[in-house]
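Sample A.
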Amino acid sequence: MSAAATQAPIRVNTRRVPRFPLAVPADVTVLRSGIPHSIPGRSVTIGTRGLGVVLAGEVHPGDSVGIEFRLPDSGGRLRLKAIVRYQALLHCGLEFQNLTAEQETLIEHWTRKKFANTTKTPAPQQPPAITTTAPRVESPIQKTPIQKTPTPTSRRTLWPILATALLLIGGLGWWHWHTAWSELESQLPSSQPRPQQPPPTVPAEVMQTLLTHKVEPIYPEAARQAKIQGVVVLDAVVAADGSVIEVHPVSGPDQLTPAAVDAVKWWRFQPYRINGQPIEVQTRLAVDFRRD
């Protein structure tokens, strides 16, 4: 056998339309024994009539398949029908079948745009402009400003003056602050509490004659069931307007005291007057609890 006969056959590219790179996920569905079988893959190239893919499964030339993929910058996914035209290892060539007008227009527009981008020649770069700068001619005679540096004697004389000025400014500021603070304190009320005399005590008999509104206490049910009864004595402070502002228990059953305090807080009296002026007074009140 001659050496020419043993050479591998030369594959001739018979594509009549250009192919462009396209690396997107592509799913191929093929019917096997009447059951759809999905094979995942990835596209390699695309043209107006077909698609080159790499699949994770095996197909055969002549198989009718469904292909689903997405064109970049084109919207939704494409679902097309195709026929396997060649298969080598995991590489397959698919020819589109029965494209709709919309699908054909979309693929053609995308490939035409891709073709225009690949064939566009870059604009020639302009060489950088060469600029020449005339050398700066220095004047042979330059005037140098004469800086006068303070002598040690002038420095020693300046420091005492600055220190004296700072002391005067600081003292004047402290005097203004102290004066303003003293005026402010003189306008504030004294923080010491003023001695307050307790209100005068008025006998209970007198306050009973001034009583205008009396609220009967609510008998606690627990005390009623326990047959607890008696008199609760309370010390009360009556304001100048006749309202009860303070109540303190003095004696009586503990089970009845809270009810008595709550009732007395709602009592009202005519203002107690001295020399015609209503004043605040303290008195003693009694609340009687009797079981019916």
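Sample B.
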Amino acid sequence: MPHVLELDSVCVERRGASVLNRLSLTLRQGEFVALIGANGSGKTTLLRTVLGFLRPTSGVLRLFDTPIGHGRTARKRIGYVPQSLAIDFKMPMTVRDVVAMGRYGLIGLGRRPGKADRLAVEKALNDVGIADLAPRPIGHLSGGELQKVQIARALCQSPDLLLLDEPTSSLDLGAQRDVLDLVGRLHRERRLTTLIVMHDLKSLPASCTRALILDDARIVFDGPFADAFTEETLSHVYKHQGPAILRELLAEVSSGEMSP
């Protein structure tokens, strides 16, 4: 199975401190992988490194078998859903306008969108289930609706690799389940390779079969998602919780309340 992403002993430093420490991993085409860890463990740093916002101080990073130094074209094959939508909600923009922004990197500066771009926007709106919201002002949406707009904007790029950075962190429980179900469905229907960053193990889509756990800038677990539910691995995620809390979480797994 082809490799989509490869990191080989990648180190990243910021202000003299190590934020990724000799990190190695491989994502294969079609995988749905959860990247899990406590706050500050290096999850977002890893995404920002893959996206090119941060440069490794050492090691090798490849996207679609392309080394990072030559990866500008390869990065156009990545769809990215950040934690929040970085736009001014007072601007007179509709949902369709924001989703269409996902095409800008493919179109290029100064070029007008063509028929293929408009079709990609409409397909993304329909696939995410927000076509009815297309003419609505972006400032008039709920948190769950805004997150779907972000996902549609990422899909507009027709990506092969989808990166999501804690897409449910600011949503209520109902909206969280709705968004995660959507991500699982899109992964299957669009045959994506998906890497979703979470700080919580409780509500990942059933499509997710592999877990990576980061702690102190290192991968401390890489394996089947079901095997991540042990007191040792959970201690890396819920670092400030006592043994009783960890045993309670494990009991939820055993009773079927959490679905690894």
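B remarks: Strands lie at 3-14, 17-28, 32-37, 58-63, 66-67, 78-81, 161-165, 193-198, 210-215, 218-224. The longest strand covers residues 3-14.
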